[in-house]
Amino acid sequence: MWTELGRQALDYMLDVQQRSWLYLDVMRQASDQYIEHTSEGSPPVLVFEHELIADGLDLPQPVNYGLLRICAPEHSPTDPTKRPFVVIDPRAGHGPGVAGSKVHSEVGLALEKGHACYFVTFAPYPEPKQSIADVLKAEKYFLEVVAQRHPPATCGKPFVVGNCQGGWALFMLASAAPELVGPIMLAGSPLSYWAGRTGAQNPMRYTGGMLGGSWLSSLASDLGQGVFDGAYLIDNFENLNPANTFWTKPYRLFSQIDTEAERYLEFDRWWSAPFYMTRQEMDWIVQNLFVGNRLSRAELPDPTTDGLINPRNIRSPIVVFASAGDNITPPAQALNWILDLYKDEEDLRLHEQVIVYNIHQSTGHLGIFVSATVANREHSTLFNVLDLIELLPPGLYEACIEDLHPDMPFVELVEGRHTIRFESRSFEDLRAFDDGREDEKAFEVVERVSQVNQHVYDLAVSPLVRQVSTAWSAQALRLLHPKRVSRYSWSSLNPVALAVMPLAAQAKAQRQPILGPNLFSDMEQWFSESMVRGWDTYRDIRDQSIEVAFQQIYGAPWLRALLGLDNSHMPSQYLLDRDVALQNELKALRKQVSYLQINQGDSAAALARILIYMAEKSSFVDERAFNLLKRLSQEQVQGCQLPSLDKLKATLREQWSVMQQYPEEAIAAIPKLVPSAQQRQLIWNAVAEIAELHDLNNASEAIQTRFATIACALGLCSAWQPTKKKATKRRRSVK
């Protein structure tokens, strides 16, 4: 026994010694990589070849942004008939490129599927006096460049993805220039900044209040001579989960040094190179978004016009991708803007808006747009059905993604390894992601306190700080940040770190990892788990203490009264009712136009009406039905052909309005739209095949009745007899 224990001890000591040398050398490599990366200007960490096609420095108001064209690999050329993809990475302390830092990524998927792909990049340092308005104008110009290279009439409008902070930038861009974007995806993007669950589940939203508002970011910018150091933002991310920052992440590298080093260095190249913002940019973000929450209330000025940025101007479908495991942008922060902008589902439909959301159950914030697993499942599946999303009737949907299984019917109609369906959802489903919005009253107090403190700082403190701050002191402050000190102190510039290289090389050459059971390895693992529990306990106590302090301070009635705020909390959507009379007039005008369009149209209008009519009583829209329709639209039967998907998209909104106002009259008018009996038969056959996918014979009586109504409208009343017996043959042969 003792001999075996002694052998295990010797094996463990040798293993730990070798891992230690290898770990120290990897940390030296990470520091050298940081120094080399920053000396090169911190280029995007993209793994794909790319070229700059539009430079923000050339604009009338120069910015440090640019538009990259991702070069398609030779084995996967782009298809000029497919819509281009545009990816906007977050500028929240880190540099650009993480959405294309792996082959299996958003950028990689776009290229794999044959789409031309563009990437909005940015340089480490902003231009002097650069503002968010300047950036918005630059991004609008970039989309105009994409439109010139890919005319929408040829391939459709671009699909634009905004990751994290890139999401709110895209949200503003789509609101200010809705004509330039096709479907948009907001991946892990915070848009409703006060939202979240109590119980210390979403502690980051309390940060602004506990710091007294926005003045501290202004101070940091003034100390940097008008430049805000993104390293402070990275600190905020890391402090959110101290167990991962101070133990799990370094210990994972130490314990798996033989396999983890390459992955660690790849990620660290992006994570550890902070970027910068101007004071104007940082003040705008903190005051208007994180503290002010003004985006979803349409209170932000539109720099491209004289009006306000109103997200209800967005005309293209909006896809929201969030995760229940994300405590930086929890689902409530990603979705509550819908409750702010629209009174109910009917209001959403009246604005003819399509909103689709998908909630991952476990991945963290970075996993939403960095994880290869998430890219290959959620992103890939959603990218496959963009045309279907554009055909969805206005409303709120949840995208439900499932793995394929052998007994799934019509599996040949599924693209990829997963199937997707869009289930109708209500505003109550959105409210379930939050535990009520009464706690947002306290953030109104935070906003007012922030305004007071900011005013005092700007008048009394900022002039003094700017007077004593110099270029030398600003650079010294940046270099003395712990993140940079740790890099320079343990790099090849340090002779001690350099001396580790031969020891690490020897350890790698003579590596003897522990392969079998080992008591000391088990004790190490137990110690690691204890450390994680200890850090998690500290985090929980800290977050709960912050939440209690926040609620006690900003929830106090006396402070609210002192600041001139009443006790009522006005829901944000009422702030958007300034144009009620105009909306009512628009509804009346739309009803008149719809009445005139009842007897107007062609086979595309007729098919659109039928699909809308059936979808209203169906609980979901299936990918397989769309793929079947796409296949049938390419076939010709006796010289007749179904309308193309492009024609369906072009008429869908118009026909949806007609169906909402005059559903019975619109269905009854179908024979006038399709006078050809052969064309009506072709439409009926297609609808019958699509219906078979949904097992219509076992559907509700209401759906069967609607199907019979369609048959009669097409002059084929005898072609359908509602029955509860399961169908056993293909409906396409019915006549």
Automatic annotation (TrEMBL):
It holds the Pfam family DUF3141. SUPFAM superfamilies: alpha/beta-Hydrolases. InterPro entries: AB_hydrolase_fold, DUF3141, PHA/PHB_synthase. PANTHER family: POLY(3-HYDROXYALKANOATE) POLYMERASE SUBUNIT PHAC. This is DUF3141 domain-containing protein. It comes from Paenalcaligenes hominis.
